[in-house]
């Protein structure tokens, strides 16, 4: 490498002699950093989403390539988070691609020590049967001669990431089932 080539590759020289006197652009880039591409450049599409961790509702850009989530970043268009994510939100890619993510329904029988896989239809039937049985067992037509028509056998605790429409539907469902203990984590 000659002296001239070495001087031309020096960032301070490029900054002083080039079109970037403040050193914020091309003058600050080395050869290897100039060849870098963003990890989201190969994404097929970007899907707007909301972070699932808390009630704040930070916006996320979910980058998808070949129908797989490849990256999740803060959404700069979000009026709530303006492109920023907390540490939990920044790690939300692991919710979809992490090795600890389960993709099957797991069930542990009462007094059991092992988890067993169930198909989704069986699991949904078990949940429906248990809701009906708990409602039947805890049903109260009246309390102290006052008509109540309620059950204390089931309750609902909603998550903080449910939106107003989802909370509305959950409230309607559990009220129709006769439940009176309906709460949301975001309010507790």
Structure overview:
This protein has 188 residues and is an alpha+beta fold. The chain folds into 3 domains: 3-34, no CATH class; 45-97, ADC-like domains (N-terminal domain of TfIIb, Single Sheet); 121-184, no CATH class. It has helices at 3-8, 11-17, 31-34, 87-90, 93-97, 120-138, 164-177; strands at 45-50, 59-65, 68-74, 105-107, 116-118, 139-143, 146-158, 179-184. The strands form 3 sheets. The protein has a 3-stranded antiparallel β-sheet with strand order 1-2-3. It has a 3-stranded mixed β-sheet with strand order 6-7-8. It starts with a helix and ends with a strand. 9% of the residues are buried. The mean pLDDT is 84. Keywords: 4Fe-4S, Iron, Iron-sulfur, Metal-binding, Oxidoreductase. Residues 44-100 form the 4Fe-4S Mo/W bis-MGD-type domain. Its main location: other.
């Amino acid at each position: 490498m000659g002296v001239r080539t070495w001087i031309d590759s020096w960032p301070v020289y490029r900054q002083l002699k080039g079109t970037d006197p403040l050193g914020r652009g091309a003058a600050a880039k080395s050869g290897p950093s100039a060849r870098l591409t963003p990890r989201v450049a190969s994404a097929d599409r970007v899907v707007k989403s909301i972070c699932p961790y808390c009630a704040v509702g930070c916006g996320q850009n979910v980058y998808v390539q070949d129908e797989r989530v490849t990256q999740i970043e803060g959404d700069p268009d979000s009026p709530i988070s303006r492109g920023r994510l907390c540490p939990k939100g920044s790690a939300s890619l692991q919710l979809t691609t992490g090795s600890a993510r389960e993709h099957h329904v797991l069930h542990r029988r009462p007094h059991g020590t092992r988890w067993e896989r169930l198909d989704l239809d069986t699991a949904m039937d078990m949940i429906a049967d248990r809701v009906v049985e708990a409602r039947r067992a805890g049903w109260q037509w009246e309390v102290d001669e006052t008509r109540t028509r309620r059950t204390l056998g089931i309750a609902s605790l909603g998550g903080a990431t449910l939106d107003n429409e989802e909370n509305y539907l959950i409230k309607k469902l559990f009220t129709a089932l006769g439940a009176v203990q309906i709460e949301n984590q975001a309010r507790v």
